[in-house]
Amino acid sequence: MLDVRKLRLLRELAHRGTIAAVAEALSYTPSAVSQQLSALEREAGTALLERTGRRVGLTAAGRALAARTETVLAALAEAEAELAAARTGLTGTLRIGAFPTAVRTVLSPALVALSSAHPGLELRVSELDPAVVPDALRADAIDVALVQEYDFTASPDDPALETEPLLEETIHLAALSAGPPRAHRDAPWIAATPGTLCHTMTVRACEAEGFTPRVRHHADDFGAVLALVAAGQGVALVPDLGLLDPPAGIVLTPLAARRRTRIAYRRGTAAHPLVAAARSALHSADGPGAFTL
């Protein structure tokens, strides 16, 4: 019989591309990953890996088995969820990942509700950029997270994860004068750290207007971004949740672009009591009166 733990390593190799990346994500040594995958080949009775020098890829059989592993792991997660639901009381550790603006607005009231309803629950929050959330979920580093996508940065589907919509926001151009992005094409721009979704959104939104922004400053906290705008250091794109307390003098021009936040969790875990409680609390926090923009 095929070992589920080894199958998971094969799935992660198909996703991450290298044994070193799999080892780092799952806290193994590269040699241990290699040994386990070799053992899986022996169990399968067919070649699953293609080795070219130091590079390792998957054979057709390996790719097919990795794809089927998604269904196997999801079924096991659903079975674990059913067992957990049979227990009395909600206890244990719930690990939540969220981006900064969501921590201050949506997540904080959700945490209060969870602590009040389930005093035996231990809550752990990690501030994560949405770009790294999928891998954190796959690696079982967190249980549930908030991810986002912009009109210009649609996220690819990940077969290991499930998501559901939470909220949608308008994106605004923050400047010292009104006008769409193209009216500020020659101004210095303020954007998030390269590699983050917010940075990609800024660049692509400007490119859609026919120019490439001249980014002078990088800041990931929207409070810092707005302070730089108020100081005359440039213009920036900011979603609703980043505008809780804008400095005086800033002109906000709403754009047609939107940011959408979704709740994400591993496939098969939606009904797990911990994940279900988090989903319910997050949806309640997004309800009327939960926060004010």
Automatic annotation (TrEMBL):
Start and end residues of each HTH lysR-type domain: 2-59
Pfam families: HTH_1, LysR_substrate
Keyword Endoplasmic reticulum among record annotations: no
InterPro entries: LysR_HTH_N, LysR_subst-bd, WH-like_DNA-bd_sf, WH_DNA-bd_sf
PROSITE patterns xref list: HTH_LYSR (PS50931)
Signal peptide: none
CDD domains documented for this protein: PBP2_LTTR_like_6
Transferase is among the record's keywords: no
Keywords: DNA-binding, Transcription, Transcription regulation
Family of the protein in this entry: Belongs to the LysR transcriptional regulatory family.
Protein name: LysR family transcriptional regulator
